[in-house]
Amino acid sequence: xxxxxxxxxxxxxxxxxxxxxxxxxxxxxxxxxxxxxxxxxxxxxxxxxxxxxxxxxxxxxxxxxxxxxxxxxxxxxxxxxxxxxxxxxxxxxxxxxxxxxxxxxxxxxxxxxxxxxxxxxxxxxxxxxxxxxxxxxxxxxxxxxxxxxxxxxxxxxxxxxxxxxxxxxxxxxxxxxxxxxxxxxxxxxxxxxxxxxxxxxxxxxxxxxxxxxxxxxxxxxxxxxxxxxxxxxxxxxxxxxxxxxxxxxxxxxxxxxxxxxxxxxxxxxxxxxxxxxxxxxxxxxxxxxxxxxxxxxxxxxxxxxxxxxxxxxxxxxxxxxxxxxxxxxxxxxxxxxxxxxxxxxxxxxxxxxxxxxxxxxxxxxxxxxxxxxxxxxxxxxxxxxxxxxxxxxxxxxxxxxxxxxxxxxxxxxxxxxxxxxxxxxxx
Length: 427
Known about the structure:
Blueprint: H1 3-9, E1 38-41, E2 52-55, E3 59-63, E4 69-76, H2 96-104, H3 108-114, E5 132-138, E6 147-154, E7 159-166, E8 169-178, E9 183-190, E10 196-203, E11 210-214, E12 217-223, E13 242-252, E14 255-261, E15 267-275, E16 277-286, H4 298-307, H5 314-329, H6 346-354, H7 360-377, H8 408-418
Antiparallel strand pairs: 1-6, 2-3, 3-4, 4-5, 5-10, 6-7, 7-8, 8-9, 9-16, 10-15, 11-12, 12-13, 13-16, 14-15
C-alpha cells in the first residue's frame, strides 16, 4: 500500500464523523484563513512526493513551489501504454480437456502448468504513464534571498498558495484544479505593479512529445511509450493512446513574446515581462473513449477545454471551483482539539510526533487529507481511484497504476459513504 493510499485508508479510523451540511452563497467569503485545515511548510518541496497535489478527478497536478525555477507536473487518468486488444490466448480451448484430466487424476502440478493458458495474454497489465510538465523560470529572482516563504494546501478550499518576499515585494502563486471546468489554474501576483517576469515552456518524459507555441498557448502533444522489456516479451501491445496538453498564458499588463530556450534543447516558450499578474490555464486530454475505443480527437478535446473558457475571468473560474468543492468537503467535520499546533509547520509537527509528541489536530487533518485526496483523485464520471493514484512523475508508477479487485480498490471506497462523499461512488 503506497503513501497516498494509506492516507485514504485513515478514513476508517473516523468513519463515524460528524456530518455538517454547508450552504454557500459566495464561496470565496467562506474560505478559512486559519491553519486548522492546512498543511503548510516554510520551504519548497525537495522532491516530487513532498509537493502538494491538486486534481479534478481526471487531470492531476503536483505543485513543487520553488522560487526561482518551478515545475508543475501534469497527469491525465487515461494516459496508458498499449491499446485495445483481445486478452484471450489463442489455442487455450484445446488444452481444457487435458487440464481437467490432470485435476481429476490429482496431478495438480501438471494442471497448474496448463492453467496460465486460461489467464489474460499477456499476463502483465500495461502502465499508467505521465503526460507533461509546465516549467517556469522567474527572471531575476534569487531563492537564497527570499523571506517569509510559505507553501500551503488548504484542504477545505482545495487551494494551494505559495507566498514569499523579495526586494520588498510580496509574491503569490495560487493553484487549484476545477472539476466543473476540467482545468488546472495557476495565478501569479505581486504587491508591486509590473513585477511579474516569467518564462514558461512545456516538456514531457514521453520521447514522442513535440512542443509548440500557438499565439499565447503552450502546446505539447505525443503518444505513450511502448513496453518492450523482458517482462512484456510474451506479447507486445502497440501504444494507441495519443495525448495533448495545452496551457493558455493570460497576462494583466506587461508584454508577452515567443522565445526559443537554447539552454533547454531549444524548446519553444513564452516570456512575460513587467506584468501585474499572470494566469496559466492548463488542460489535457487523450483519444481514449472506452476500454476498446480510442477514436476520440485528443487535440480537439484539449483545445475545447480552453476555448470554452475564453470569456471566463480568473475570479469566475475560482468561484465555480469553490462552489463545487466546498459543499462536498464540508459535509463531514471532526474536532479532536489541539488547535495550538497549527502554528507549527507540518514538518515540525511530524518531527515532534516521531519523538513521542501528541498532536490530535494532526490526526483530524490527516483524516480530512484522505477525503481531500479522494475528491482530487476520483470524481463523478471519472475512472476509479487506482492503486497508485493519478499523480505520477515516472514512466511506471507503483503497481503500474492498475486496479486490483481483491482488496485495493475496495479499501479506497470503504469510507466514502461514512464520510458523506457518496457521489464519489459514481467514479
